Q: What sequence folds into this?
């Protein structure tokens, strides 16, 4: 079983270059065990720290261009980036009535924040969301609280409120 060794340095601000010995060895199952190796870190005049992380293979050879990690397959990295950003505001007209956050709007993620001047509780969920404490369904948000939902359409996110005219602001990412 191949192992990668990650060297983790401790920050010592009183010197600019130092040799330290803490190191964690991580195997394929994510278990770690202690070993000793040397690592370098640099602290510049502004207090910024640069850490040199040294990787070795299971034989102790440093990983570099002349000794690369073995690659058995390549996959396309996921594209987590967003191509657009939008925002909005939604007020619940009548408490105890679930309302869609917005009309059909494509997105990947939405951050929903209960307005700071709310006097009740907003609850976020699907079309069956209920804010009333006795039968509550969904995620409750108190004034100023934020909840993030990874979803493809804003119309699939619903809110309800315990007080009419309480609302949320939201930012969505495409």
A:
């Amino acid at each position: 079983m191949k192992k990668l060794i990650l060297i983790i340095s401790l920050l010592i601000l009183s010197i600019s270059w130092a040799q330290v010995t803490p190191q964690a060895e991580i195997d394929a199952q994510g278990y770690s065990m202690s070993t000793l190796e040397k690592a370098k870190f640099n602290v510049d005049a502004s207090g910024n720290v640069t850490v040199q992380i040294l990787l070795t293979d299971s034989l102790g050879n440093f990983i570099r261009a002349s000794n690369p990690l073995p690659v058995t397959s390549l996959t396309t990295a996921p594209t987590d980036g967003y191509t657009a950003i939008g925002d909005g505001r939604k007020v619940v007209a009548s408490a105890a009535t679930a309302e869609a956050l917005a009309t059909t709007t494509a997105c990947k993620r939405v951050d929903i924040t209960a307005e700071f001047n709310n006097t009740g509780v907003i609850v976020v969920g699907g079309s069956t969301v209920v804010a009333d404490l006795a039968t509550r369904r969904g995620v409750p948000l108190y004034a100023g609280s934020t909840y993030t939902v990874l979803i493809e359409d804003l119309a699939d996110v619903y809110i309800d409120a315990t007080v009419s005219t309480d609302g949320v602001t939201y930012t969505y990412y495409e």
Notes: Residues 23 and 35 are 6 Å apart (CA to CA). The chain has two domains: 4-52, 85-173. The longest strand covers residues 85-91.
